[in-house]
């Protein structure tokens, strides 16, 4: 694990210890037990959170790429010369290829994590 990952793990554990102390202070024993179970399986929980963050970032990239494609299609409709239209079509093709790569990465990350939902509601 690299330094950043180790730092995030320590921060995650500290956050859950703070929650545990709060649950103890308010006398919520069921919540304390739930937090302890989460802490015991912290590797799985942290990995799940990291995978969700990666998927969310991939979806943001996908959305940005689609917006760029829409812009290029609008410019293509307005293009006068064959040369600029050809250049725009080349850019569109490259973005479509990138979109396929992103789609494959999103699908792959879903399989790895066992995610059941197709997509989160992510706004740019």
Automatic annotation (TrEMBL):
Protein name (database record): Uncharacterized protein
Organism field: Paenibacillus mucilaginosus 3016
Lineage, top ranks: Bacteria, Bacillati, Bacillota, Bacilli, Bacillales
């Amino acid at each position: 694990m690299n330094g950043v990952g180790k730092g995030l793990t320590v921060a995650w554990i500290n956050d859950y210890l703070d929650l545990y102390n709060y649950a103890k202070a308010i006398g919520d024993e069921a919540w304390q037990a739930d937090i302890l179970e989460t802490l015991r399986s912290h590797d799985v929980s942290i990995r799940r959170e990291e995978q969700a963050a990666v998927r969310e970032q991939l979806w943001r990239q996908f959305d940005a790429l689609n917006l760029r494609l829409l812009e290029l299609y609008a410019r293509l409709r307005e293009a006068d010369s064959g040369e600029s239209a050809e250049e725009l079509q080349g850019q569109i093709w490259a973005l479509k290829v990138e979109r396929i790569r992103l789609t494959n990465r999103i699908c792959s990350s879903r399989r790895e994590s066992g995610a059941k939902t197709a997509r989160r509601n992510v706004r740019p």
